[in-house]
Write a structure and sequence with these properties.
17-stranded mixed beta sheet, 3-stranded mixed beta sheet, 24 strands, F-box_dom, F-box-like_dom_sf, F-box domain-containing protein
Length: 603
């Protein structure tokens, strides 16, 4: 597209105009002298980009006219002309003729300008290797019967239908008036359906290795038994995606009446997007090897607390993170994401505020790559206080995993987990050696470490757990781009109120609390080996001096150091990540300096 723009503005000279002059001119331009292998990849990539192009009249064939060299390479690339162009009858005739008897690639956005050509090609083409169609709900109907009975040579089928939200629950598709049975499609390996009728998955698709079902309309959702019956025929399946595409009664008790779950012996990855009941019920009906990866997204917090125990049981039953395959989990990554600010002016909740939490657990030297478990909790609608929901999901997930051999905990923009919850989570990480923190400061984590160290030093009487030091093997701490003056939430004292009290704020800077915890741990011979402070802001020179005494090795970026005189004594901590930089001076918020109070009580 950029090359055709150069041609249009006269920076390149077309090979059809002034032949000798154009050759001399284009010979000096690097784009006209690219290696043939690179040009072929560019041309094929352009042909593949025709789906979803902003200009429906744009044709990849135009790119072949950039210069004589590009045209020569295009004409010599037989694979290129297998991408039949449906953007205009002229280009359709040209590309379909040049494709000859080769296996065709059908990539198009269905519309009035090409529906007849598509219908004719899908029915009469000698061989079709793959089909990728984008369409509106009105335009896809004439092609449904052909897509249900595709070319026997077909290897990949992607159908992406757009259904306007204002249609609601109307019947988008009529029941099929044609049979869906037939001989097996032995070459079909990949099937991806968006907003399509469920009957496009037929009993002929038994050789599928990848099946991805997205946004199944409610009127098209089958019963659980029929849904499992169809999936059970996919015995060679390796990748399965169910994105808001579950049976109509997956939330009911029918799943518990299933005699046995279906098994996918070759499954490598399963991806689920839905509510907690939909995800858990689906996993209860499916079994697969413990080496398979789970990618899940919970898109609503409704009933999360009620079904959290089922989430824990389901994850535990599938042995994610256990040593069943001899490769334990070694790294746990928690990533938070926030859009908008928590409050408008004053203490009025902002309905546009959204936040999510992603939990990833990685095995050691896993040949498959990626996370063994990748769970995202991202409510898409306002479900009340989301802090409690995200923390509930985190606790349920960590209970289900075997974290005894986790040596690295990476936190990216995670600041909502309370001190009490961190204390419980850190007890499940006895082998933790590396703590990597990026973005928003986890105030609850450092307070859990500090109060645990003080409790251990005071020798409090209790059940033994109170005095046991958390993460006794912690060696290295890395801070990246952290606001070291960040304050934290105060934990709400009542169960009926939200987990985090947004009116009561801690004015203890994050780095001060961290250094205090490391200093207390050093008294018991647990001296942290290294502390790295890189690209962090609001780091006090005096605190850096305290850090040198608390750890063996300190690596600090000296560019952002501050003097104590530059800090507002009234509000030494900052809360910009939660209040979008609002001035809290006269807003009625209550501030506490917990660290100062703790130090004064010791003295």
């Amino acid at each position: 597209m950029s090359q055709t723009s150069l041609l249009r503005h006269g920076h390149l000279t077309s090979s059809t105009n002034h032949l000798n002059e154009s050759k001399n001119h284009n010979r000096l331009i690097l784009a006209c002298n690219l290696p043939e292998e690179v040009l072929r990849k560019i041309l094929i990539t352009c042909a593949q980009l025709s789906v979803g192009a902003k200009d429906p009249t744009w044709s990849w064939v135009n790119v072949s006219y950039v210069c004589s060299n590009w045209r020569r390479v295009a004409l010599a690339s037989q694979d290129l002309w297998r991408y039949i162009d449906f953007s205009h009858p002229r280009w359709y005739t040209l590309t379909s003729t040049r494709a000859k008897m080769s296996a065709a690639h059908i990539i198009a956005t269905v519309g009035d300008n090409n529906i007849r050509q598509l219908h004719r090609t899908l029915r009469l083409a000698h061989r079709i290797q793959d089909i990728h169609l984008k369409s509106s709900i009105q335009d896809i109907h004439p092609l449904l019967e052909i897509l249900t009975h595709p070319n026997p040579a077909l290897e990949s089928l992607i159908v992406d239908v757009h259904i306007p939200q204002n249609l609601g629950y109307v019947d988008a598709y009529d029941p099929p008036s044609f049979p869906t049975t037939g001989p097996p499609l032995t070459n079909l390996r990949y099937l991806e359906l968006h907003n399509t009728p469920f009957y496009l998955l037929t009993s002929r698709c038994t050789f599928l290795t990848s099946f991805h079902l997205h946004d199944l309309p409610l009127t098209e959702r089958p019963s659980l038994r029929y849904f499992l019956f169809m999936l059970e025929q996919l015995t060679k399946l390796q990748y399965l995606t169910l994105d808001r595409a579950f049976p109509i009664n997956i939330d009911g008790d029918e799943g518990r009446g299933i005699e046995r779950p279906i098994h996918f012996p070759d499954l490598k990855c399963i991806s689920l997007v839905g509510s907690v009941p939909e995800v858990t019920n689906t996993l209860e009906c499916i079994t697969f090897p413990p080496s398979a990866c789970l990618v899940a997204k919970i898109c609503t917090l409704v009933d999360l607390k009620k079904h959290a125990w089922r989430l824990t049981e389901t994850f535990s039953a599938h042995a994610w993170g256990t040593d069943a395959i001899g490769v334990p989990l070694e790294t746990l990554v928690l990533t938070g994401q926030v859009s908008g600010s928590r409050f408008r002016q004053g203490f009025e909740a902002d309905p546009g505020f959204r936040q999510s939490l992603r939990i990833r657990a990685f095995r050691a030297d896993w040949e498959g790559g990626g996370a063994a478990l990748d769970l995202t909790v991202a409510p898409e609608e306002e479900d009340g206080n989301s802090d409690e929901g995200l923390i509930t999901a985190l606790v349920a997930t960590c209970k289900a995993l075997s974290l005894m051999k986790i040596h690295t905990l990476a936190l990216q923009d995670v600041d909502i987990v309370t001190q009490k919850t961190w204390t419980a989570l850190l007890r499940t990480l006895p082998s933790l050696r590396v703590l990597d923190i990026t973005g928003r400061a986890p105030s609850g984590l450092v307070w859990a470490l500090l109060l645990n160290a003080k409790s251990h030093g005071q020798g409090l009487k209790g059940d033994g757990e109170t005095q046991r030091l958390l993460v006794p093997r912690l060696n290295d701490i890395y801070l990246h781009s952290v606001d070291c003056s960040s304050g934290g939430f105060m934990v709400s004292p009542k169960q009926s109120t939200p987990v985090n009290s947004h009116c009561d704020l801690d004015d203890s800077p994050f780095l001060d609390v961290l250094i205090a915890s490391l200093s207390h741990r050093k008294k018991f011979g647990l001296c942290t080996r290294s502390l790295s402070i890189a690209r962090c802001v609001n780091v006090l020179c005096s605190v850096v001096g305290d850090a040198r005494a608390a750890v063996k090795y300190l690596i600090c970026d000296l560019r952002n150091l501050m003097k104590k005189e530059e800090v507002d004594p009234r509000f030494p901590a900052r809360y910009s990540s939660c209040w979008d930089g609002q001035d809290l001076g006269g807003s009625g918020f209550r501030h506490y300096h917990r660290l100062r109070t703790l130090i004064d009580s010791d003295n």
